[in-house]
């Protein structure tokens, strides 16, 4: 088939921006979008606020006839002294439980919105919770065999961020680095994933905004040593580590300075899931030069390609082979579920293998969980609510099949090679709002 390469430049994208950017260095495929172009208003109004989310969860628990248990696993600021913002405890971090941490059952943990501006995973999670809590024979058969725990929106402060009196969801958490509060020397460098000025790329492609609340990329704050506590370590050793750029970087686990990462990790430790799923958003791709369907999701079973040695304890962490196999089977089943003729649903790519021990997926993969990364296309800054129904479906449908596959054991009959053969990430559409340095 003849290649059609075409550069699409959003209408109000100025020449100076293009000249100053490397974003257009690669050939562009014709995007069948949509992403929101400059000056368009982005509507977020149908997404749930924190309060709406909490109210919805409580209603679902009430109507579930005891199937669903709703618990607060922690709060967004309830951790080390000195990491608090104005409100003492911060926002609740809920865990929705279908079944107990029963070693005789298969166990799956799902988290969403670790980045506050990645809403659709949370909306999909609510639909899943609704389906599971409403019962029926198929659901009962699943829940007889599988315990399902869901933590929707594990970054409630970023999700509810305000800027100039408007709702402005952001990637980062809200916390301030203050080394003195944890008895580190004054001036000790912050972890590399700290966003000191509280700035982020703006909605509607208009450069960057400074909302002014410092915070962290929670998805770099995890550590394969799930018991890592910065306050318990030798302070001089920690300070040296942080002050040295060759160690304060993404090759190492995070420092568990956010209450959110600690809370999620405590749930992981209690539940010990066989499978852990984290739902994100990312940029835009088409399948290939020949197939210009817009990719709705990328999937990954590999986020820790290397073993990990904790630099403070010397302890080694490795990805378990059986867990890796199950992770590939979970991803493969998800891929197969979305093949519905030549539709957008099936236009799936595989996220590139990465080695990020400070991500939740990486840290948990190094602690014997099979993992699935789901990367929905677009960010709230670029996509708004467009296609949200279709994109929710690309999360809900695969997860429901994974529940069934875990319940009847059929997941173990899937050929992991199907995962290896998923088309790799390629044909990125350079959305001018996408910053290359962020990753998932
Ligand atoms: Zn993300």
TrEMBL record:
- Cofactor (UniProt): Zn(2+)
Q: Where is this region: Disordered?
A: 417-440
Give the SUPFAM superfamilies listed for this entry.
Zn-dependent exopeptidases
The protein's UniProt keywords, in alphabetical order, are: Carboxypeptidase, Hydrolase, Metal-binding, Metalloprotease, Protease, Signal, Zinc
Q: Which GO terms describe its molecular function?
A: metallocarboxypeptidase activity; zinc ion binding
Q: Which domain of life is it from?
A: Bacteria
Instruction: Share an example GO biological-process annotation for this protein.
Output: proteolysis
Family, as annotated = Belongs to the peptidase M14 family.
Official protein name in the record: Zinc carboxypeptidase
């Amino acid at each position: 088939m003849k290649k059609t390469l075409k550069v699409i430049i959003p209408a109000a994208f100025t020449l100076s921006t293009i000249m100053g950017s490397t974003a257009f260095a690669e050939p562009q495929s014709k995007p069948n979008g949509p992403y929101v172009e400059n000056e368009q208003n982005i509507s977020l109004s149908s997404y749930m606020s924190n309060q709406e989310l909490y109210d919805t969860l409580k209603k679902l628990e009430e109507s579930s006839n005891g199937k669903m248990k709703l618990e607060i696993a922690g709060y967004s600021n309830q951790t080390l002294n000195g990491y608090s913002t104005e409100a003492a405890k911060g926002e609740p971090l809920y865990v929705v439980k279908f079944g107990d941490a029963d070693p005789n059952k298969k166990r799956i943990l799902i988290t969403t919105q670790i980045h506050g501006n990645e809403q659709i995973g949370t909306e999909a999670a609510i639909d899943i919770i609704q389906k599971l809590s409403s019962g029926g024979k198929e659901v009962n058969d699943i829940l007889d065999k599988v315990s399902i725990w869901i933590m929707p929106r594990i970054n409630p402060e970023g999700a509810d961020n305000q800027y100039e009196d408007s709702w402005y969801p952001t990637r980062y958490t809200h916390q301030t680095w203050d080394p003195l509060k944890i008895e580190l020397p004054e001036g000790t460098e912050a972890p590399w994933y700290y966003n000191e000025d509280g700035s982020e790329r703006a909605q509607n492609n208009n450069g960057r905004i400074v909302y002014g609340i410092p915070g962290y990329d929670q998805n770099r704050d995890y550590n394969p040593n799930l018991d890592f506590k910065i306050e318990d370590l030798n302070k001089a050793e920690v300070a040296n580590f942080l002050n040295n750029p060759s160690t304060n970087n993404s090759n190492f686990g995070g420092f568990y300075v956010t209450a959110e990462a600690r809370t999620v990790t405590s749930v992981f430790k209690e539940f010990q899931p066989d499978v852990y799923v984290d739902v994100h958003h990312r940029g835009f791709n088409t399948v290939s030069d020949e197939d210009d369907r817009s990719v709705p999701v990328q999937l990954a079973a590999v986020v820790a390609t290397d073993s990990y040695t904790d630099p403070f304890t010397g302890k080694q962490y490795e990805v378990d082979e059986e867990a890796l196999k199950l992770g590939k089977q979970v991803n493969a089943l998800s891929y197969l579920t979305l093949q519905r003729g030549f539709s957008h649903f099936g236009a799936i790519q595989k996220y590139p293998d990465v080695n990020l021990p400070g991500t939740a997926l990486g840290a948990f993969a190094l602690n014997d969980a099979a993992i699935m990364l789901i990367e929905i296309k677009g960010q709230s800054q670029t996509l708004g609510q467009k296609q949200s129904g279709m994109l929710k479906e690309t999360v809900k449908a695969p997860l429901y099949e994974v529940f069934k596959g875990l319940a009847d054991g059929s997941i173990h009959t899937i050929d992991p090679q199907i995962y290896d053969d998923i088309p790799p990430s390629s044909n990125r559409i350079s959305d001018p709002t996408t910053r290359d340095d962020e990753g998932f």
